[in-house]
Amino acid sequence: MKLFKNLLMLVLIVSSVTLVGCSDDDAPAVLVSVNGTVVFNNTDEFNGDIDGDFSSNGGTATKSFMWQNALATADYNADISTSVEGSFRMVVQDANGGVVLDRSLSGATAPDSISGVTTGGAPGLWTVTITLTSFTGDGSFSLSEGN
Questions:
Q1: What is the pLDDT of residues 16-71, one digit of tens each?
Q2: CA torsion sign, 61 to 65 to 71 to 76?
Q3: Taking 90 as the threshold, does the pLDDT of residue 74 lie above it?
Q4: C or N terminus of the chain, fewer CB within 10 Å?
Q5: How far apart (Å, rounded) are the C-alpha atoms in residues 64 and 40?
Q6: Which pLDDT belongs to residue 3?
Q7: What is the dihedral of CA 119, 123, 127, 133, to 10 degrees?
């Protein structure tokens, strides 16, 4: 019985040390927020003007959210702050799923900002997808109903 207790104690100690050593605190992370709310899944929905921020320490992730646009176009703007390679991509689809915007920015190259008006699409609930790929830095983006 004493041998069993000693063996059990050894297994518990080894397991505890192993679990502590497997922390993923240094893993690359991507954070995307819209109007101050962190985007966690693809069902978040926003109305009105969109002011978004993103940051990453080398991570890769795609975050999507829904945006109510009563007009057929949207004004957009995005900029990044990074001195290393990596990319930011924003894809916007209209209420029918048609792509009205697909623009990217790459780190360590010019330009570091984009702006303009989307192509025309169907008003309603639009889908906005932000993708960061091996991105280290931060940035912002905005959308507002177009003309």
A1: 444 444 444 566 688 888 888 788 666 678 888 999 999 999 999 999 999 999 99
A2: negative
A3: yes
A4: N
A5: 9
A6: 54
A7: 20
pLDDT exceeds cutoff 60 at 103: yes
Is 90 within 8 Å of 76 (Cβ atoms)?
yes
**Full-model pTM:** 0.78
Q: Name the E strands within the chain.
A: 30-34, 37-38, 45-47, 50-69, 74-81, 87-93, 99-106, 113-117, 124-145
Radius of gyration, CA atoms only, the chain: 22
| Cα separation, 124 vs 108, whole angstroms | 36
Joined together, the tokens standing for residue 131 give: 């993708």
Decide if 125 contacts 43 (C-beta within 8 A).
no
